Amino acid sequence: MRRAVAVALLALLVSAPTRARAAEAEATHPSASVPKNVVLADLGLHVIALGYQRTLSDHVALSVSGGLYDPWTVTDKVGDIRGAILRLRPYFFFTDHAPRGVWISPFAQGAVVRGTSQGEARTGGAFALGAAAGYAFLFGDVVHLSLGVGGQLHYARVGTDAPPSFYTAGIHVDGTVGFAF
Fold it and tell me: What is the CA radius of gyration of the chain?
């Protein structure tokens, strides 16, 4: 009996470094089952868009989305300026492997917009640069939910600098929900 206990303890001691290395490798490299792609609905403060996010490395993902843009919190009323937007942003994940965990994300976006300035319908552009921090959940390795908040420099011009054109710093709210695969 003593011999069996001694052999078991010796086996445990010999295998401990191997098990530790295996656990460390799993912690530093995502498993093959972690999804690399997310098709998402981008439901930000001024944006309703469809997008795609691709994991580029263990802690970095890149997202592109396009859709409807309406800066309703900046203009006098909803629809003063409205258009089509394209947003590009990397995500840097700190607590888990992409596409889940705590993240920070700078972004750039541009839009072709239409609005009424000085009684005349005009076409123009809108641009924003900003950054946000948040958390991305991955439920069952299929449903992706990401929420965050940050700030942005925001500019829109339709024909002239008169309202509803604007240039301002403001809050940025992130919300995406999607299908991971």
Answer: 24
